[in-house]
User: Which sequence fits this backbone?
């Protein structure tokens, strides 16, 4: 079995198990554990518990692999493979009881640096909807047994998604970016989980997605889903504190880069 498929199957199995834990904890009531960069940037006890489950499964099944997680930090790889994990992407949705949250697990060849890693496998699981999106490099992107493909350009305009950071001082600039892009759009969505935004581009539920300031664990898995569904993913301003990610089918991607990279 190719390594990418082996890693994808493991990511899918762990995403389902850890997603079930997240769903169980949500039903029992969510406890705030801490805040991070701002009061709005929260972490729940479930974030930490779910990441611990993922990390322990990975170290049992793939000892020596590296790890980069949103809540528990990094471990250097001895095998050349690093796992990039967001245990609950869409944490604020999760805390409010909005079902748009996901477990995002990616395996890359390289370190946790998105400027140099080569993604091999991905799993994005939405526990509240029981939807599992998977991809392996060269093996396509899937929703369950359904093969995924990004949308072609639509003369009606693009259904776009974006997001905003937790730092209020970034909101004016991000809203100005929305204004720049709107001539390409039929409408805009703000779903609240970058991993789901990217999975939906891969599935054709969105035409395109852009957002500044994501962390590697927010997009590692979703970006591979888009690429394996025939889309293109680009990161602009990668040396800045808030790189811009753009994901869409090839034609819309070129239009978005033309507008956003000017
Ligand atoms: C979230 C992203 C979302 C972004 C939020 C936040 P988290 O990740 O998925 O797209 O707009 O600001 O970064 O914090 O829920 O893991």
Assistant:
């Amino acid at each position: 079995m190719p390594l990418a498929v082996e890693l994808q199957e493991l990511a899918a199995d762990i995403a389902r198990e850890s997603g079930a834990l997240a769903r169980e904890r949500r039903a029992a009531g969510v406890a705030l554990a801490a805040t991070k960069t701002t009061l709005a940037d929260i972490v729940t006890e479930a974030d930490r518990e779910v990441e611990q489950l993922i990390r322990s499964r990975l170290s049992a099944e793939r000892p020596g692999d590296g790890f980069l997680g949103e809540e528990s930090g990094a471990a250097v790889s001895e095998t050349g493979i690093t796992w990039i994990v967001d245990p609950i992407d869409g944490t604020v949705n999760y805390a409010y009881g909005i079902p748009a949250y996901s477990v995002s697990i990616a395996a890359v060849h390289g370190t946790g640096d998105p400027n140099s890693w080569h993604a091999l496998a991905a799993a994005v699981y939405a526990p509240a909807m029981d939807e599992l999106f998977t991809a392996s490099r060269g093996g396509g992107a899937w929703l369950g047994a359904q093969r995924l493909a990004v949308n072609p350009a639509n003369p009606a305009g693009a259904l776009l998604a974006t997001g905003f950071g937790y730092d209020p001082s970034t909101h004016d600039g991000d809203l100005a970016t929305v204004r720049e892009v709107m001539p390409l759009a039929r409408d805009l969505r703000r779903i609240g989980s970058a991993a789901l935004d990217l999975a939906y581009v891969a599935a054709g539920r969105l035409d395109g997605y852009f957002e500044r300031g994501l962390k590697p664990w927010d997009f590692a898995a979703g970006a591979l889903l888009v690429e394996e569904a025939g889309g293109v993913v680009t990161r602009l301003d990668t040396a800045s504190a808030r790189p811009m990610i753009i994901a869409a089918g090839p034609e819309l991607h070129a239009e978005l880069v033309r507008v956003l990279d000017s």
Q: What stands out?
A: The CA atoms of residues 156 and 186 lie 6 Å apart. The two ends are 44 Å apart (CA to CA).
